[in-house]
Amino acid sequence: MSISSRLDRHFVVAAAAVAVAGAANAAIVTWNINTAIPANLNGLYINVAAQTTGTSGAAVAGWDINPYGATSLNFFASATAPNPTTTYVRTQSSGGPSSLAIGTVIGGTSAYVNSTAAVISSTGVGSNGWALNSTNYFGFRFNPGSTAGDVRYGYGIMQVGATAASRTLVALVWEDSGASIQVTAIPAPGAIALLGVAGLVSRRRR
Asked: Which of 1, 61, 76, 168 is the most exposed place for a label (fewest CB within 10 A)?
């Protein structure tokens, strides 16, 4: 078999593998929201499934989650949440929502809380794993429609700046099938494509 034929066969197999991997993860939805959370008592109201936001609950029909706070980072949950008092994931023994480690699984057996108290202070690091000048991950569950018990699990990627009043919601990621989901760091845009090009160049030089 010629080198050209072997390369062609390799790329066909590789493409098939990517297609299978994509099908296996088809239920995972990523919303690259990249939106600053206003530093006030309204914050950002979010309807996860509809991918809509607003600065008041009345402006966002069916909203699910609401990060807010004028000088600290707080979280609120909608009355239509699976359980409004237990919407966000907590891994510590007490307090509000946690900043989760990469690899944390969010699902039916996770511990959920809600919090109208600060999870990170205005001047320092919070007690629930939240860190300033860092990327933080928080977990949540929500109901994408009006059917009771129809629960979805997801996580948010939030960049917190020098104070808790400086925060950007980078992305929301959720499992649309109702299965659990694992917190995963998302590669920089184009990183996978660049790796593929590098691999192609390397193989062709052999």
From this structure: 1
